[in-house]
Amino acid sequence: MGGCVSLHGNASFLKRTRRPNSQLEDGVLNESHRSRTRSPRFSRPINILKDPSGDDIFKRYQFGKELGRGEFGITFQCCDNDTGETLACKRISKSRLKTEIDIEDVKREVEIMRHLPAHPNIVRYKEVYEDKDAVYLIMELCKGGELFDRIVSRGHYTERAAAIVTKTIIEVVQVCHEHGVIHRDLKPENFLYANSCENAPLKAIDFGLSIFFEPGQRFSEIVGSPLLHGSRIPPFWAETEEGIAHAIIRCEIDFDRDPWPKVSEDAKDLVRGMLEANPYSRMTVEEVLEHRWIQNANKVPNVPLGEKIRTRIKQFSLMNKFKKKVLRVVAYNLPDEQVNGIKQIFHMMDTDKNGNLNFDELKHGLTMIGHPVADPDVQMLMDAADVDGSGTINYEEFVTMSVHLKKMSADEQLLQQAFHFFDKNQSRYIEFEELREVLLDDNLGPNNDQVIEGIIFDVDLDKDGRISYDEFKAMMTTGMDWRMASRQYSRAMLNALSQKMFKDKSMQLKN
After folding, report:
1. End-to-end CA separation in angstroms for the chain
2. Tens-digit pLDDT profile for residues 318-373
3. Per the annotation, where are the binding residues for ATP?
4. Contact 178, 129 (CB under 8 A)
5. CATH code for 10-140?
6. How buried is 28 (Cβ within 10 angstroms: 0-12 exposed, 13-18 middle, 19+ buried)?
7. Are 467 and 251 in contact (CB under 8 A)?
8. CATH fold label, 147-313
9. Residues in domain Protein kinase (predicted)?
């Protein structure tokens, strides 16, 4: 079947088995156990979609390797048994849909993908299946990786490259608007390249937050990916996420901080027009495409915007210090057989036997165990794992890294042990003083308390000022960039901010 890779243990994917612990079976969570241990907030519907292509996707498609995972599902490579075409399948588990809003998001995502026309810069939808466990969205396979990853891998980014990409993104927005759709989550992670070629088409994906609209319709819901604001790359700046939100609402644009002094006046003029607070004077999509910076995208200054932008994007992709600490606690509690296996791999990679892995040893070692990784990704891995800042990875750091890479931190028993480690007073919550105590040795910098408050704010979904086990588990099981992917986090965080701002009357615009 062409380049299709079969999924080992496919029978377990088709038939749920009862086991004492939740387990990952080739990347697919045993949903029957999850539904028994965690009561849903409402009765899960039998059918979600109207007119799916069928209820037995495995007759038509053969599943291959996992491509990625998000808040509600996992994306696999799959192969069409009839045509041999290699595609992507986004499997959305029904057990992950906890509210009516989640259900409506899935329905609307399918409706919108069916509705949008074929376009070279929008991922191509093929069909959708539904069975009792999940919804399966079949779409074009994009092999070139995320826009985000290409930006990071280049080591620097030029204004000309930004102009060309911006033009493509605005053209996608224009097509969406022409067909009555607002994407509502435009960010580098939601654009993939069709292939690995330098000039490969860039394609918009993930319409999970998108909605239909009518001309003249006004919206008040705050949506999007709040952590993107915290990357300090947009022209809004403050010490906290709340401060950044205030700056966005008040439209306090800051072009004084790096990299904006290096950016051309044409680019800044366009940004001002697009971020105009008044919707009646804000630039339309057509006006943006006619702007001289977009029209002359290939002639924009080809000057690098500086290393700081790469550093910030890279930091943006890494987990917070709390999560790294949790991984270390999980690593400490691993069963002996797992620790011994990791120890053997470490000693095999440590060719000079000095007890530390340098860049070359890590890169060569990953290749030896069948996971060749590009240089920029090896460096990112080094940066993430090197907790003590020595420039190398010691054994303890390697075990922590392995826990993350092998997704051992999703193990329920290990997670509970880690949570109890932080919950010193056994109140069933991790509170400020407890978090400060365990992170005391982690060199958080001069603003210790502010960093800890930021961590709690990020993880605390219900905004009660403390971290419950469910919130702790959500942080550890939804991936390194969980806050960006989490629609529930986005809603909870942004709604909490907006309510606070309304109370403070800080939503009022400047005259």
Report:
1. 64
2. 445 677 778 778 877 777 777 777 888 898 999 999 999 999 998 888 777 766 66
3. 90
4. no
5. 3.30.200.20
6. buried
7. no
8. Transferase(Phosphotransferase); domain 1 (1.10.510)
9. 61-294
